[in-house]
Prior knowledge:
GO terms for molecular function: ATP binding; ATP hydrolysis activity; transmembrane transporter activity. By secondary structure, this protein is an alpha/beta fold.
Amino acid sequence: MLLQANNLSCVREDRTLFEHLTFAVTAGDLVQIEGPNGVGKTSLLRLLTGLSQPFAGEVCWNGEEIRRCRDEYHANLLYLGHQPGVKATLTPLENLAFYQKLHGSGSSDVDLWQVLAQVGLAGFEDYPAGQLSAGQQRRVALARLWLSDQPALWILDEPFTAIDKQGVKVLERLFLTHAERGGMVVLTTHQDLTLMQGRLKTLSLTPLLQE
Ligand SMILES: Nc1ncnc2c1ncn2[C@@H]1O[C@H](COP(=O)(O)OP(=O)(O)OP(=O)(O)O)[C@@H](O)[C@H]1O
């Protein structure tokens, strides 16, 4: 598995956020995109997922531009955006069952109660998700990562937002295990990560001086 950003440039509202950005992410890599607020981290993740198009350059999956291998790329990609993306009227269990169906057969024998216990939601399985705290809602979204049964690319925008210290450690351990199994994680965070520290590659975005 190989994700490549080749000579990427991103322009928003006539402002160049970054240009000539080239890097590769391969099996076992844990990559943190870092930089100050507004520098373009989310914009970069959206380019990597194919949700938006670069001003110049290309994103390739296993050597092929992602537009040309869209289905195969998306089958290998799990993207969690800024918002938790949890249905407020459904319970955590129902949300997770929905994701499971969406994923297809691969994760159908995963015990959803066990997954919810792993993300610290034991006892909250049957509450409407909209009545849970911000951190608990984020945990419902993150529970999807436990459904991913194959090495895959996880692109995660601020996954630790509203998550307590213990929860961050649980996630760090999950990311390390995922990488050991040959998976790849590209994430943004403003948090200092402890468990992943020695394993983490960082890509720093710096504000460009505008003409
Ligand atoms: N929907 C949008 N339409 C137009 N411009 C946008 C939009 N979203 C973001 N931008 C511009 O792109 C810039 C980069 O935004 P982005 O969300 O990628 O930054 P970020 O590095 O992820 O920031 P943060 O650390 O605050 O999450 C912003 O400063 C803003 O000027």
